[in-house]
From TrEMBL:
This is Amino acid ABC transporter substrate-binding protein. Pfam families: Peripla_BP_6. Residues 1-28 form the signal peptide. It comes from Pseudaquabacterium terrae. Gene3D superfamilies: 3.40.50.2300. Keywords: Signal. Residues 33-382 form the Leucine-binding protein domain.
Length: 402
C-alpha cells in the first residue's frame, strides 16, 4: 500500500484506479494552500460507489479554486485509499492529521469508515463533515455533520417512505422477503424495515443475511423464488444488487417488486434485470432537484468527468448529490467563520442552516441530524426516476411493477 501524497504538479491527470494517496492540484492564487484530508474506498468492495465521491471532490475543489479559493487561499485535497477497510481508514486519518498536517478533514465513503474517521476527528478536535453515514445514533461526536439527509431515526422513517410508495402503487404488497448484507448501516436499516412492515400488517415470508463482501448469491436467489413474495427488500450496498439480480436471472426468476437500499447506482440502473427496481434518493438529475442554485453547473461538469472516467451512468444522483452537499457544508462553515478553527466552524454549523443542492439543511436535531429528505426512485427505461412523493416526481412518473 502506498499512502504517500503526490506533489501538486504531479497530481494532474491522475487515474481513477490509482492506489497511491493523491493531492488535487491547487490552482487559485494567494498564500499557502488550505489542505483538506480524506480517504475513499478507491479499491475493494465499495470502490464502484467511491469513484463517484472522488469525481465530485475533484470538481468541487476546482470550482472553489477558480473563484479564488477559501480565505483567499487555494484548496488542496489530500486523498488516500482506505481499500474499503474501516481499520485502514482510521490509520490513514491519523496520518492525515499528524504526519500530513492537513487543515481540515472530509469524511470517507460508507458508515464503517466514517465511524473510524470520526474517532480520529474527536481525538484531535477536528470537524468532520461526512456524506454517507447510515446510523445516526452512532454519531456521538458533537463536531460531526451529516450530508446524507435521512433524519435521526432512518430505520423507521425511510422504510415508512418506501412502504408508503408501495401502498400508493398499482399492486400494494401483502408479503415481503427481507434479504440483507450484514454491513452495519445496511443491517440496521433492514432491521427497521422488518419492524415497519409488521406494524403495517404485512407478512414477512423470508429473512436472510449475508456477510459483507459475499459474491455467491445463488442460494439467496433460490430462497427468494421459493418464498414467492410480492415484494423483495434487498439490503444492498455496492454491487450486491447486481450480483443478486444475476443469480435470479440464472434461475429465471423476476421479482414482482424489488428494492435496493444503497446500490452502486450506475451499475444497477444500466442492468436490464433491474427493470422497475426501487431505491431511495436525496437528489436526482430532474426537477425539482435541478432547480437548486449551482445544480446545473455541477451536473454539466459531473457528466463530463463521469463519461471520461467510463462510469456506467454519468447522471448525477443520490451519491453524487450527497458528496457535493458535504463539500458545500464545509465551504459554508469556513466562509461564515472566516477561518479554519474547527470549534468555530462546528458552532456555526450547529446554529445555522446551510444552502445546498438538496435545499437548506439544519444540524440541530439528535446527533446533529436534521430532516429525513429521502425520496423513492425507480429504474424506468434505463434511468432513475423519482416516483414518490408525488411533488418530487417529474414528467408524470409513477411506480411500476414487473
Amino acid at each position: 500500500m502506498n499512502t504517500s501524497t503526490l506533489t501538486r504538479r504531479g497530481a494532474i491527470g491522475f487515474s481513477l484506479g490509482a492506489l497511491a494517496g493523491l493531492s488535487v492540484p491547487a490552482r487559485a492564487q494567494g498564500g499557502a494552500p488550505i489542505r483538506i484530508g480524506s480517504t475513499l474506498a478507491l479499491t475493494g468492495p465499495l470502490s464502484a460507489t467511491a469513484q463517484i465521491h472522488r469525481i465530485v471532490g475533484e470538481i468541487y475543489v476546482e470550482q472553489v479554486n477558480k473563484r479564488g479559493g477559501w480565505l483567499g487561499r487555494p484548496l488542496e485535497w489530500v486523498l488516500k485509499d482506505d481499500q474499503s477497510k474501516p481499520d485502514l481508514a482510521r490509520t490513514l486519518y491519523e496520518q492525515l492529521v499528524t504526519a500530513d498536517k492537513v487543515d481540515l478533514l472530509m469524511g470517507p465513503y460508507a458508515t464503517g469508515a466514517i465511524l473510524s474517521a470520526m474517532g480520529v476527528a474527536q481525538r484531535y478536535g477536528k470537524v468532520l463533515v461526512h456524506h454517507t453515514l447510515g446510523i445516526p445514533s452512532l454519531a456521538k461526536y458533537d463536531m460531526q455533520f451529516p450530508a446524507w439527509s435521512l433524519g435521526s431515526e432512518p430505520a423507521t422513517t425511510v422504510p415508512n417512505t418506501v412502504f408508503d410508495a408501495l401502498a400508493a402503487g398499482p399492486k400494494p404488497p401483502k408479503t415481503v422477503a427481507v434479504v440483507t448484507s450484514k454491513f452495519p448501516s445496511i443491517q440496521f436499516m433492514s432491521a427497521g424495515a422488518r419492524e415497519v412492515l409488521k406494524k403495517r400488517g404485512l407478512n414477512e415470508v423470508l429473512f436472510l443475511e449475508w456477510d459483507f463482501g459475499n459474491r455467491d448469491f445463488g442460494p439467496i436467489a433460490n430462497r427468494i423464488k421459493d418464498a414467492k413474495p410480492d415484494f423483495v427488500w434487498v439490503g444492498a450496498i455496492g454491487l450486491d444488487g447486481n450480483l443478486l439480480l444475476d443469480a435470479m436471472k440464472k434461475i429465471e426468476y423476476v421479482p414482482p417488486q424489488h428494492f435496493y437500499l444503497y446500490p452502486a447506482p450506475g451499475p444497477l440502473v444500466t442492468l436490464p434485470e433491474a427493470k422497475n427496481a426501487l431505491s431511495v434518493t436525496i437528489f436526482e438529475e430532474q426537477p425539482p432537484f435541478t432547480n437548486a442554485p449551482g445544480a446545473a453547473e455541477f451536473i454539466t461538469l459531473y457528466r463530463e468527468r463521469a463519461t471520461k472516467a467510463n462510469l456506467p451512468d454519468p447522471s448525477v444522483e443520490v451519491q453524487a448529490g450527497a458528496s457535493y452537499t458535504a463539500w458545500q457544508i464545509l465551504d459554508a462553515g469556513v466562509a461564515a467563520t472566516k477561518g479554519l478553527d474547527d470549534k468555530a466552524i462546528a458552532a456555526w454549523l450547529r446554529a445555522n442552516r446551510v444552502d445546498t443542492i438538496q435545499g437548506k439543511l439544519r444540524f440541530n436535531g439528535p446527533s446533529n441530524y436534521g430532516d429525513d429528505l429521502m425520496r423513492v426512485k425507480q429504474v424506468q427505461n434505463g434511468r432513475w426516476a423519482v416516483v414518490w412523493p408525488k411533488e418530487f416526481t417529474a414528467g408524470g412518473a409513477k411506480l411500476q411493477t414487473n
